[in-house]
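Renewal narrative, Specific Aim 1. Our central claim is that a sequence can be written position by position from structural information alone. The example that follows is taken directly from our test logs and has not been curated for this report. It begins with the C-alpha cells describing the chain, in the order in which they were read.
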C-alpha cells in the first residue's frame, strides 16, 4: 500500500512540476514561426530557381530557353504562394499584433506586384527568341527578385523590432533561426 501511495505522490509531484514548465509557445512565437517558415520555404525555392537559371545560362544548349522560362515561372509561383500564405496568417493576439500583420500584409502585396510584373515579363518573351534576346528580356527579373529578398528581410526586422514580445517570439521561433 505504501508503494502505491508513494507512486501516486511522486506522479502528482511530476504532474505539478510539468504543468509549471514549458507552458508552450507564446502567441508571438507561434506567429513568428508561421511567418518565418513561409518566408524560408519561399527563399529556398527562389534561390533554387536562380541557381538553375544561372547554370543553364552559363552553358546553354537545346531546351535552355524553355528550361529558363520554367524556372522563372517556378520563382513567380513560389512568390505568389508566399504572398497568399502570408495574407492567410492571422495576426498574433497581442497588443502589437495588428500592426505586425499590416507590415507582413504590405510585404505580401509587394510580393504579388513583383510576381505579376515578372509573369508579364516572361510572357512577353516570344517563343522563337534567341538565347540572347531571352536573356535581355529576363535580365530585369534578377534584381527584382533580389529586392524581394531584401524586402522580406527588412519586413521581418521591422516587425521584430516593433515590440519586445514580438522580438522574443522571433528569437525563440525555430524557423526564424535562418534570419538571425
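The sequence written for that structure reads:
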Amino acid at each position: 500500500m505504501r508503494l502505491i501511495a508513494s507512486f501516486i505522490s511522486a506522479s502528482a509531484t511530476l504532474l505539478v512540476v510539468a504543468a509549471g514548465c514549458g507552458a508552450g509557445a507564446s502567441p508571438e512565437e507561434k506567429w513568428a514561426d508561421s511567418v518565418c517558415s513561409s518566408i524560408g520555404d519561399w527563399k529556398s525555392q527562389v534561390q533554387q530557381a536562380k541557381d538553375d537559371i544561372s547554370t543553364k545560362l552559363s552553358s546553354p544548349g537545346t531546351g535552355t530557353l524553355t528550361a529558363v522560362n520554367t524556372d522563372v515561372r517556378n520563382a513567380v509561383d513560389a512568390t505568389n504562394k508566399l504572398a497568399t500564405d502570408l495574407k492567410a496568417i492571422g495576426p498574433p493576439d497581442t497588443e502589437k499584433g495588428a500592426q505586425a500583420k499590416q507590415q507582413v500584409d504590405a510585404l505580401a502585396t509587394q510580393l504579388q506586384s513583383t510576381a505579376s510584373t515578372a509573369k508579364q515579363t516572361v510572357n512577353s518573351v516570344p517563343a522563337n527568341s534567341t538565347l540572347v534576346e531571352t536573356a535581355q528580356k529576363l535580365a530585369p527579373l534578377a534584381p527584382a527578385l533580389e529586392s524581394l529578398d531584401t524586402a522580406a528581410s527588412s519586413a521581418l526586422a521591422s516587425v521584430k523590432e516593433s515590440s519586445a514580445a514580438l522580438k522574443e517570439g522571433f528569437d525563440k521561433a525555430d524557423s526564424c533561426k535562418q534570419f538571425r
